[in-house]
Structure formats: structure tokens, C-alpha cells
Amino acid sequence: MSDRAVTGHPPADQETDVIVVGSGAAGMTAAILAHDNGAEVVIIERTNKVGGTTAVSGGGIWIPVNHRMGALGFSDSRAEALTYLNQLVMGTTDPKMLETFVDTATTMIKYLEAHTPLVFDAMTATDYQPELPGGKFGGRSMEPQPFDTNLLGEWKTRLRPPSSFSFPLTRQEAFGEYDAFYRPWLVPQDLAADRMMKGIVTIGQALAAGLLKAVLDRGIPILLESRVRKLLMEGDRVVGVEGEQAAGGKMSVRARAAVILASAGFEWNPRLQAQFLPSPIESPNSPPFNEGDGLLMAMEVGADLANMAEIWHYPSLMIPGETYEGRPLSRPTLAERNGPHVIWVNAGGRRFANEAANYNSLGRVFREIRTDGPVFQNLPAWAVMDSQYRAQYVLGTTMPEDRDPPWLIKADSIEELAQKTGIDSKQLLATVEQWNADVRGGRDSKFQKGMSRYDQSQGDKEATFPNLGTIEKAPFYAVQIHIGALGTKGGPRTNTRAQVLHVRGQAIDGLYAVGNVAASIMGPGYPGRGATLGPGMTFGYIAGIEAAREAKRLAPKVQR
Fold it and tell me: Which residues are in the FAD-dependent oxidoreductase 2 FAD-binding domain (predicted)?
């Protein structure tokens, strides 16, 4: 079947052992493991590009007790990892799922390093709540080394392009060596230019590209522009999929052993958002094709659901006119929330959170309801800063030396800024005055911004206080903050073998789910950078092995 892997459009009507729906890291990991364990595999991808949400992501992979962290001076243990995770999930996850993840994650990474072109490094990035028991000040988050996309041949053009993360640096380089998010002008331009010219990619693109290369090397066919709409059933068993291709033809593929759903979440589906989420996602950070196809198919065959009200929060900026795949582009915030000389306020003029907290915890605060009615009290939200911030730090796509963009609200006084934004003027002035007093005292008395090692790691390391700075020098600025999300966290409930569970408790034969299409094992929590991809790839690894085992079990009973 290797000849099919270079066309992107294999025959639409066929039969195979294992079908993988989706081509992100979780799906491609599952396909690789199923193939390597003896199964015949087909990947079906809705769009004309490979890589899914992975390709536009930061590419971090949260892997506790990994084999690289010791080189950075960090240590870890199974007990510490589970202690940390069990606090974050707040009783929402079966402990066996967490144990399976911790026990398998490093095995998965080592396998990919041994059997694909990918090489992974541990990062110095802290856990997102490192002061909790079991938390770590670095080493658990991993990322791929830069990858040469020329190794993909003609498939180089089929790799999903980045959205807002487009600079060719690893995360360790960006946050560590060069401090690129606060001082991008210090990044060696010859390094960036050389990588871009040579087609060398990093972070999520590197991860997707390395897995794609492994898929191509194995001759695993990929059906592009093929949207799966329905699971085929025989009795209580899933035996294939149906859908349509972009050219207009119908598609039907039979699975002798298993269908593995890896088709992402439902953050771009307004109806499903309204049905399951307590607040809207204004600006998803993922490709606009994540509309819950896998969720709907799983529901149709009786899947139990879990974690449906949760999302991977990421408060974001939306710059007018910027788009990705024809939809408004969402830009995750960094210096705009973590840096000095900036605070976030609601329309009432009050701060409502530690702005430098991890983005998931910060995003959850947007869901708070006012006591006097069904209104979100922190929407709209605004980042408020002064000329000290503007002269030093990046703001969206605007560098300090750039002219003020038309979307940035500017005023000569706090009162004028309040008038232009609709923020309560008296309260905003009081908030800024209290903030300035706290900064001069070296401590945020309201939300303890800058007290956590995580906060400090995300701030300006050259400043007196990495996350604190007065807002007192005109002109003053404001930009609206939106509820962003890397994806949704809810979906079909799965077991330790990545099998989808029926509402009555038993596994649905022949059906697996991995990645953001499945209910996240992280519940409401977010342990550290890469907490989406780490479990997604780990359970993808498990699903691939289990599906291949099922293919062998059923082999005598089917006609080859």
C-alpha cells in the first residue's frame, strides 16, 4: 500500500484492519503502533493538510518521570507524579487512567525515538502549579528537536501550516536561551532565516512532520479531504466508517478490527458549545475544522460522555483582519498577561485574577457569574497597560518600535481610557492606584501575581519584578481579551485500553478514542506544558497496540 501513501487520495471504498480518523499526533502515533504490531492501517483526514491541531500547537508533551529530565538536573518519581495529578483532577478521573498514563508515557516517547525520526528534549519549563505536592520546577515537559521538512518529499506541502506560532524556535530556545517573547530582537536573525530557508520547523510542526515521515516510511495510506460522518455497526461492534470526500463522492471503509477516533474536539461547533459548555469560546486557537465529528459519531453508538463542561482555556487576542483558514485568528497571550506594567480588568474596572497564573486557571475565571443575574462578570475583559509596557514589550504582533496599530485603544489618562473602553472610570482609577501601591511594596496584595515560580518563569526575567510594574506613565493603552481555547476536554469516556465505553459501562467493541476527541484524563486541571499532547499520544500508543492485538485475535474469523 506504499504507493497510496504518496497520492493522498487512495480509493474511497476499501477494507483494512484499523482505521484512524484524524492526523494529529495522537492519531498518527496510534497508526504507527498499530502498523508496527502487525495491523493494516488507513488514516482518514478531513482536510487537505496533515497534522491537525498538533501542527498549530506549541508542540509540548508533558511526560512525567521521563528519561531526559535528569540531564537538566531534575528528578521525578511515579508517586510524585500521581500525587500531583490527583490534586489537579479533583476526583473527576479514574485513578487507574492516571496510573496508566504515568506508567506508559515515557515508554511511548522512547518507542517513537527508536522507531521514528523524532528526537525529544526535556525543557526547563515548570509545571503549571509547581508548589503543589508532587509538582516540579522543570523537566516534565518535552518537545521535539527541529525537523527538516524536506524529508517529507512532496508531502511537505501537505503539512498543516502554523497559525500564530510561526517563528522557527524551539520552546526551550524561545523561553530560555533567547527570551524571545520579551526581547525578540535578541534572537539571532541568521538562525531564524536559515531555518526558514531550509524548511526546518519546530514545536508542533516538528512533531507533526516527524510523525508524518514515520507514517510515510511505513506506507500507511492517508485519505485526505475525507470527512467521516458515521460509524458502521454490525450488532454491537463498530466495523467501519462512512462519509464523503471533497470531490463529492461517498466514502465507505470497512475495519476488520477497530476504528480509532482521533478527530479533535468540538470547539468550533456552536451548537455543541451551547449544549455542553457553561460559557462560550469566543476565539478557539485550533484549526476551524474541529466541529465534534468524532463526538457525534460516538454519541450515536451509545458512548458514555465525561468532562463535557471543560476546555483547555487560553485567553487570547483577536486582531481585526487576521484569519486562519478563512476564520478569525486567535493569538494566545503571553507578555500581555505575564509581563510588568499590565493588569487585566473587567467592565467594572476591577482585577479578577492573577494575570500571570497558568492560562488554563486564568481562563476559568472568565466563567464566573454575577450574583445579580446570569451575566458573566468578567466579560468583556481588558488588558490595561502604560507607555512603560508599550516601550519594552511585544503586544500582539506589534513591536515596541512599531507605530500604534488601529486596534489598540490609546488615551492620555486612565479616565479617558475608561471612557473609550466603557470601563467604570472611578473603579479603574482606584484599581490602578492600588496596583501601583502594591508594586512599590513588591507584592500583589490581591492575587499574589508573581509569587509562584511559574509566574516568574513567564515574566520578564530582567525586570526588578518579573511580573510587576507600575501603570503610571501616559499614554495608557487597552486591548480586549477574549475567551480562547486550545480545544475542548470532553468526549467519550474511555478505559485504560483507550476503548470507548458505552453508557451502560461496557466497552464498545471495535471503537477507541484518543486525543481531544476523548474525555481528558486531566479533568479540570492542567499540570504543565504539553498536557494535551502527552496523554493524547500515550493513549494513542496504547490504542494502536490494542487495535493490532484485536486484529490478530479476529484474523482467523475474517476473510483476508
Answer: 17-533
> Does 417 have pLDDT greater than 90?
yes
Query: Does residue 502 carry a pLDDT above 50?
Result: yes
Q: Does 380 sit behind a cis peptide bond, omega within 30 degrees of 0 on the bond before it?
A: yes
Q: How confident is the model at residue 375 (pLDDT cuts 50, 70, 90)?
A: confident
Q: Beta-carbon neighbour count of residue 334 at 10 Å?
A: 18
Complete edge-to-edge strand list for the sheet that includes strand 283-284 = 283-284, 484-488, 311-313
pLDDT tens, residue by residue, 115-171: 999 999 999 999 999 999 999 999 999 999 999 999 999 999 999 999 987 779 999
User: What sign does the dihedral 449-455-458-462 (CA atoms) show?
Assistant: positive
Q: Give me the helices (H) in 359-451, please.
A: 359-364, 387-390, 414-421, 425-441
CA 420 → CA 374, 479, 506, distances in Å? 26, 11, 57
- Give the SS3 label for residue 142: strand
Q: What is the pLDDT of residue 167?
A: 78
Domains and CATH numbers, the chain: 26-226+489-555 (3.50.50.60), 331-481 (3.90.700.10)
